[in-house]
Write a structure and sequence with these properties.
A seven-stranded parallel beta sheet has the order 3-4-2-5-6-1-7, with helices on both faces. The protein has a six-stranded parallel beta sheet with strand order 8-13-12-9-11-10, sandwiched between helices. Helix 34 runs antiparallel to helix 40. By secondary structure, the protein is an alpha/beta fold. The protein is about 40% helix and about 15% strand. InterPro entries: DEAD/DEAH_box_helicase_dom, Dicer_dimer_sf, Dicer_dimerisation, Helicase_ATP-bd, Helicase_C-like, P-loop_NTPase, RNase_III_dom, RNase_III_sf.
């Protein structure tokens, strides 16, 4: 008994006859002729393992070819189970896009065995993705197909182009090597010539083979002729009710074809079968009409899914209101009337459907008797039929016959079939459905298959008890293959033949009697016979036209090796035309061939080709097929020269397919392995140590106050810091004393640390510094004497003897008990001592003396501080440290800390205080140093980037914005410019592609555009140009001073290192690319944008302005009178009337004078984007990027553009269209659009769904203006802005959101993470989603909501959900059902950073809880303008955590010599506004919570702690490698 493939164990051992065939296959190319079920595939696995071991290391693959899609999965799984090799399965539905060369290269290099359909492999060879000299073995399953124009033969034609030593080994498998039994020898020779292999059979172990592949009993069964009439069948038939003969021509139903098929079915199956066919056929046609009328895509029904209730469309609640022509409505009514006769219904009074024998033909009755007679408890059988509709009808009828109803469970199995309605109303089965049917048959869930020829070969079935040929045999292959399904010793193979049909009986007898003789033809031959010569491939079965074959050409594209032949030319043209964009109002475009033996080819007019290249005339040939091939070959070759096909003979494909070249042929590097977070990126930084140092004078309000020292000549900058005008001058080299240079450098380092501690950070710094703020002399050199005096007491001088009135309001002091609060000395109060009585109303008034108050304040843990009883007191005012470095680009002061407000004076005893010997001008300069350094760094990076990247003269501030990432929180970032730059990028690329590829249609151009503007391309170009080294990502807090050497740097290195390690998300690269374009566009318009894009390596066609590059390409021509008024309304006079005609021509018009508007629409879409975005950018300078993007989306959506086309320009009256359905649809929507105001369109566009043609024609018209004006952007933009003025005037940053966005943002702000959308089908048989539900915490809140389109259904569902969830009185209120933690930011157990998300949100799906939650977070951030949390960036350079605060306290405590029991009062948050009330916290564990609350209330926290070990001195850090 044969074993099913899936049942074979991993340790399956070969049989003797399999070893025999394998041994012969090792020696030469062979075709194994073995019966079905004899284990041919297992022999191939033996050969595969042998070849893989023999050719190891050669970089070759093994290709296993199958003729049908269903076999890919089956054979691939079997090979994977039997070998340890890497097996890849590939067919049309799962194959990588042909344009993805890198993807194919990776796929082929990462596999050992490639199991695929023959056509896919032929495509790979045609487009030069792989070569046959890199294949070690080709296995041909069911190799008898290697004839005529089958893909097998196409592969072998390529095989014979190689030298013998370069060819792969061939192994063919078939049960029927002889196609034509009348000329068996020649038939066999042809197969051997085509496959370059010898047909062999088992010779030494025939008995074993027969034991495993027994022959069934064959029976010729005659049945009576069909009856003329069936009196028992009802007279009132569906055919009579439909009145198909009376249908008008506009009802597109092929009545004659249906009648012919109806008559054939009537004769074969009887009246019920014919009526069942008619009912099912008409039901699918009406369903198709309904789907088209409702705007659905063409998704045809299959016979595998009966039961579609047509009346559901009109009776089901929420169903859409679809109108059909009256005649079609009548057909639908007829089907509903007869429904219960053919389908099971839900009517409880209706009994089960029964098919009476008197309703069946004699042929069917005989079939029923045969099945009944041979039925057993384990029965399994197959009935082979010729036509699909017969299979469908029989599979329905047989289980309903009373005689078989409890015995037979039937299923149909048919092929994939035609892809559209024009070729076949009965669409074939999907691969998944085929697999399910085969699985059910194997599992005995069904016991009878009604199958077409698809079940004859290849598919793995268990051996059947009974195989019946219901229709006559047509050829030897069908006879042998179908008989092979009956492999039991007790199996029976029955051939049904009509009585009196001697021809059919004779044909069967000829097959049966000749089969043993045919087997002898190849079974007893000597295997050492001559192998076919390489050139003999041309002598295939088309030898009746030898001259045609001899004249065939072959074209190989130089440099790529792509191959054009007569056999693939037609397919290449079909592929090109299939990419032309089309909607439901335009058919799929196909080439048209006319003529017989001399063919003429007409390409669709939608291809943007000159008239002479739309028609081709082929040479005269001796067959019609050869004539079509010849003219297609000529056309493809010409189109390749016109660049319609690229050098791989491919039209452009989607950029998402992995194309790693841009439109200009430049490589796009693989960025898939670039990490989400770029860490330790060396970013340009001017702050450096080194042998040479420069001092730059710093001016406050025009007065030099200090010098800024570093190893770089700094750019001159200006800024306003809290009302003070700050600038720096030119750098002067620091004149170090030769003998004391080291000591001077150490003093400069100590002074800088001192100034940072007193004025900025309040903490020690461990790493060597890279910039220094120092006092200067009148000649702009460093004032070493002042520095030396100051650093003698870095943390304050306790000696007050030299301090007098001249120091009042000019000296910094500090209380050693509150070193976190520097003060400005107001006065030395000799009139007050610690024992003085505080005045009433003061904060000390509650205590007898000032000393008592201070003892109470500073006593901690019962340790009383030593406070003198006599001596003067110090009166000071708070002078808070300033650690923020944010500044305003426009010097407005926005984003900076508020000016200091001086409170009442504070008194402390002089003995507790110290004063800093820092000049007033210097400590005032220290207070602006963070902003100044930030500004200098930004300007330095911007100017360095401009010079090193060869960027045009973009203004400093705009380029700084473009290079600043959002996570820097600088008060400005690149997001606004990035949004504008995105539109500039799109337009610049579109104009270049439009002109570079004048003969490529919109579908090709759009694919190229997507590749040019993709994030992958932008990131690749950014990395190529090292853009990452100019980005600004540092945070705005300087509490941890950032201008130091990195921890691993050598402080003794004399060469300047002008780089600093920084971390930021990788998506910042593409954002900065687009932002730079936006900055260039704002600075100098589209011309400067072109220069910037070219400098950055983008596909813009070069920096030359468009009007110089492309002017004069469009010759002048008169404008048709039809469009005169349009020009007046538009405010533009066209030079080229032909261009305007093209802009107004819908693809359905089919004009011979011009192409359709699709290419111009492609241009206009990009133009409108820039116009709207530039308008918003200029009008709303404070709007964030999310607001700009949202407003743009409202203005450029299809309903908004359609309203402009109708209301402003009246384009619906001028559109040249030749489609009745489209004209009717436009007519329905025009009144609606005319009634809507601009505000209603902008606010509620999601509720409208006008035909796309209305928005397309506006885009094409404005695109034509740009082209016609010689690409004068300013002129075209002004025309577009005037046209859209009404919509633009309504736009604002705070437009109401659509219901979906409103729901997502509200859910995100509510903290819920258990929401998602769920699609559904109101009519599952259509396989089309038209309903949306909203699920919250596993409960369906709303839905399914059914609407005309899925977008509208989603909006309505979201609107209702938002109302229910926010209703406090509703049981579905979100507050009642949500159990998510309000403050959680984790989605499904892990925190998702925005930088970790897929690029462009492409991989996010709001139909999952996680996808919805993340999208909601992103959308909330975009609309609010907030920078999303990023775990990797929470603690940036210059920012501190709670642990850092404790470290800060420890450092300060260490550097001051104080009693260990002293209690320290620390400012918890540095701010320019002085602290007022004080909150005492003695519980250290509550520190983090209290500090957070205090920062919100702007108060200080006293924290009690023990001091740590002292920090190293500055001298120690200069003489040893610094560590943190």
């Amino acid at each position: 008994m044969a074993v099913a493939l899936q049942d074979v164990s991993d340790t399956l051992l070969p049989r003797k006859y399999q070893e025999e065939i394998f041994a012969r296959a090792q020696r030469s190319n062979v075709i194994a002729a073995l019966d079905t079920g004899s284990g041919k595939t297992y022999i191939s696995t033996l050969l595969i393992k042998w070849i893989s071991a023999r050719d190891a290391g050669l970089g070759k693959i093994i290709v296993f070819l199958v003729p049908k899609v269903a076999l890919v999965e089956q054979q691939g799984d079997f090979i994977a189970r039997q070998t340890p090799l890497r097996v890849t399965k590939c067919c049309g539905a799962t194959a990588i896009d042909l344009a993805d060369r890198v993807g194919w290269k990776r796929e082929l290099e990462d596999t050992d065995v490639l199991v695929m359909t023959a056509q896919i492999f032929l495509n790979i060879l045609t487009h030069s993705h792989w070569s046959l000299d890199k294949v070690s073995l080709m296995v041909f399953d069911e190799c008898h197909h290697t004839r005529k124009n089958h893909a097998y033969n196409g592969i072998m034609r390529e095989y014979f182009q190689f030298a013998v030593e370069q060819r792969p080994k061939i192994f063919g498998m078939t049960a029927s090597p002889i196609w034509n039994p009348r000329d068996a020898v020649e038939s066999l020779a042809t197969l051997e010539r085509n496959l370059d292999a010898k047909v062999i059979a088992v010779r030494e172990h025939v008995d074993e083979l027969m034991g495993h592949s027994p022959k069934p009993e064959e029976v010729l069964h005659e049945y009576p002729a069909p009856l003329e009439s069936y009196p028992a069948y009802p007279e009132y038939t569906l055919w009579n009710r439909l009145h198909l003969d009376t249908l008008p021509p506009h009802i597109d139903i092929p009545v004659e074809k249906i009648r012919a098929r109806y008559d054939i079915t009537y004769a074969s199956l009887g009246p019920y079968g014919a009526e069942l066919f008619l009912y099912t056929d008409m039901k699918q046609r009406i369903a198709q009409m309904l789907l088209q009328a409702s705007g659905a895509e063409r998704d045809f029904l299959s016979f595998a899914y009966p039961g579609f209730g047509l009346d559901d469309l009109s009776t089901k609640p929420g169903a859409m209101n679809v109108e059909l022509p009256p005649e079609a409505e009548d057909l639908q009514d007829a089907l509903i009337e007869f429904r219960s006769f053919f389908e099971e219904t839900n009517d409880p009074e209706a009994g089960p459907l029964t098919v009476h024998l008197k309703w069946c033909s004699p042929k069917v009755r005989e079939l029923i008797d045969i099945l009944f007679e041979h039925y057993t408890g384990t029965f399994q059988g197959i009935v082979f039929v010729e036509q699909r509709h017969v299979a469908a009808c029989l599979a329905t009828m047989l289980p309903r016959v009373p005689q078989l109803s409890h015995l037979i469970k039937a299923g149909q199995l048919i092929g994939h079939g035609a892809a559209n309605l024009a070729k076949s109303q009965v669409r074939g089965m999907a691969l998944r459905t085929q697999q399910d049917i085969v699985r059910m048959f194997r599992d005995k869930q069904i016991n009878l298959l009604i199958a077409t020829s698809v079940a004859e070969e290849g598919l793995d079935f268990p051996a059947c008890d009974l195989v019946i040929r219901f229709d006559p045999l047509q050829h030897m292959v069908g006879y042998l293959q179908s008989r092979g399904r009956a492999r039991h010793r007790s199996s029976k193979f029955i051939i049904m033949v009509q009585e009196g049909h001697l021809t059919h009986a004779a044909r069967y007898k000829a097959f049966s009697e000749s089969e043993p003789q045919l087997r002898l033809v190849y079974q007893n031959r000597d295997v050492r016979d001559r192998s076919p010569e390489p050139g003999e491939i041309e002598e295939e079965e088309e030898r009746d036209d030898p001259e045609d074959i001899a004249q065939r050409e072959r074209y190989i594209v130089p440099h790529t090796g792509a191959v054009l032949t007569y056999n693939n030319a037609i397919g290449l043209l079909n592929h090109l035309c299939s990419l032309i964009p089309h909607d439901r109002f335009t058919p799929v475009y196909l080439p048209k061939y006319t003529g017989d033996f001399q063919s003429t080819l007409h390409l669709p007019s939608s291809l943007p080709l000159p008239q002479q290249h739309l028609t081709y005339y082929g040479p005269e040939k001796r067959s019609k097929k050869e004539a079509k091939r010849a003219v297609a070959f000529l056309a493809v070759r010409q189109l390749h020269q016109l660049n319609v096909f690229d050098d791989f003979l491919l039209p452009a494909q989607s950029g998402s397919t992995g194309d790693h070249e841009d439109a200009d042929g430049r490589t796009i590097q693989d960025v898939s392995k670039v990490p989400f977070m770029l860490t330790d990126v060396p970013v340009r930084d001017p702050w450096t140590r080194g042998a040479v140092q420069y001092v730059h004078a710093v001016y406050l309000d025009g007065i030099p106050t200090a010098g800024l020292v570093t190893g770089t000549l700094l750019p001159q900058v200006e800024l306003v810091c809290r009302g003070t005008y700050v600038s720096i001058g030119d750098g002067v080299r620091v004149d170090f004393d030769y003998e004391n240079e080291w000591e001077q450098r150490r003093m400069m380092e100590d002074f800088m640390r001192m100034g940072l501690w007193w004025c900025i950070t309040g903490r020690g710094i461990a790493l060597p510094l890279t910039c220094y703020l120092v006092p200067t002399t009148h000649d702009s050199q460093v004032d070493w004497a002042t520095i030396e005096k100051a650093v003698a007491n870095q943390y304050g001088n306790p000696d007050w003897s030299t301090v007098g009135e001249e120091h009042y309001f000019h000296t910094l002091v500090i209380n050693r008990m509150e070193h976190g609060k520097p003060m400005l000395l107001r006065k030395i109060r000799t009139d007050i001592t610690p024992m003085s009585v505080p005045p009433p109303g003061s904060r000390e008034a509650a205590y007898p003396t000032y000393r008592d108050y201070w003892i109470h304040k500073f006593t901690r843990r019962d340790v009383v501080p030593e406070i003198p009883e006599d001596g003067p007191c110090i009166e000071g005012q708070p002078y808070a440290r300033h650690a923020a470095c944010a500044y305003a680009l426009d010097n407005s002061g926005e984003g900076q800390a508020a000016p200091m407000i001086v409170p009442l004076s504070i008194l402390y005893p002089m003995g507790m205080c110290r004063w800093a010997d820092i000049p007033e001008d210097v400590f005032r300069t220290f207070h602006v140093l963070p902003e100044l350094c930030h500004r200098i760094t930004d300007v330095y990076r911007a100017r360095t980037a401009r010079a090193e990247l060869s960027l045009p003269p973009i203004t400093d501030d705009l380029l700084i914005q473009a290079l600043t990432v959002p996570s820097a929180n600088a008060g400005f970032n690149n997001q606004r410019l990035e949004t504008l730059g995105d539109a500039v990028l799109k337009l610049s690329a579109v104009v270049h592609l439009f002109n570079r590829f004048p003969h490529r249609h919109e579908g090709q151009l759009d694919a190229l555009r997507r590749n040019c503007v993709s994030n992958r391309t932008l990131m690749s170009r950014a990395l190529e140009h090292r853009l990452e080294q100019y980005l600004t990502s540092e945070g705005q807090s300087m509490r941890l001073w950032r201008y130091t050497l990195p921890p691993d740097a050598d402080p003794s290195e004399t060469a300047p290192q002008r780089y600093a390690p920084r971390t930021y998300p990788r998506r910042s690269l593409q954002d900065c690319m687009e932002a730079t374009l936006g900055a260039a566009f704002v600075t100098g318009g589209i011309e400067m944008g072109l220069r910037a894009g070219t400098a950055l390596g983008l596909s813009f066609g070069g920096p030359c302005p468009w009007n110089m590059r492309y002017s004069g390409r469009i010759p002048p021509s008169p404008v048709a009178s039809l469009f005169i008024d349009l020009q007046e309304v538009l405010g533009y006079q066209f030079r080229s009337g032909k261009l305007l005609l093209e802009a107004m021509t819908h693809p359905s018009f089919g004009s011979l004078e011009t192409s359709s508007y699709q290419r111009l629409e492609f241009m206009g879409d990009a133009l409108i984007d820039v116009v709207v975005m530039k308008y918003m950018y200029d009008k709303f300078p404070k709007a964030n990027s999310g607001q700009l993007s949202w407003a743009r989306s409202r203005a450029v959506c299809a309903p908004a553009l359609a309203s402009v086309a109708v209301k402003r320009l009246g384009l619906h009256r001028l559109l040249l269209v030749n489609n009745v359905e489209l004209s009717i649809t436009i007519g329905k929507h025009v009144p609606i659009l005319e009634e809507l105001t601009d505000e209603e369109i902008i606010h509620n566009a999601w509720k409208q769904d006008p035909p796309k043609a209305l928005s397309d024609v506006l885009e094409s018209l404005l695109g034509a203006v740009l082209v016609d004006s010689g690409y004068n952007f300013e002129r075209a933009a002004s025309v577009a802005e005037v046209c859209m003025g009404g919509l633009l005037s309504v736009l604002s940053p705070n437009l109401p959101k659509d219901p979906v966005s409103e729901l997502m943002i509200w859910v995100a702000q509510s903290g819920c993470r258990k929401v998602f959308f769920k699609k559904s089908m109101s009519r599952p048989e259509t396989k089309r989603n038209d309903g949306i539900s909203v699920v919250v915490h596993d409960h369906t809140i709303v839905g399914p909501v059914i609407a005309l389109n899925l977008s509208l259904a989603k909006g309505l569902a979201a609107e209702r959900t938002r109302a229910l969830l926010s209703d406090q009185n509703s049981p579905q209120c979100l507050a009642r059902i949500c159990t998510c933690a309000e403050d959680a930011v984790e989605v499904k157990g892990r925190q998702i950073a925005i930088e970790e998300l897929p690029e462009d949100k492409k991989e996010l799906d709001d139909e999952t809880e996680e996808g919805f939650a993340v999208l909601a977070r992103i959308m909330d951030g975009e609309f609010s303008g907030r920078v999303p949390d990023t775990p990797e960036l929470v603690k940036q350079e210059g920012e501190t955590s709670d642990e850092d605060d404790w470290a800060e306290l420890a450092e300060v405590e260490a550097v001051l010599t104080v009693d260990p029991a002293m209690v320290v009062d620390v400012d918890a948050r540095s701010t320019a506004t002085p602290p007022v009330p004080v909150v005492e916290v003695v519980n250290v564990k509550a520190k983090a919570k209290a500090e957070s609350a205090a920062s919100d209330m702007n108060i200080d926290i006293d924290i009690e702690m023990d001091p740590p070990e002292p920090l190293p001195t500055a001298h120690a850090m200069l003489t040893t490698r610094a560590t943190v």
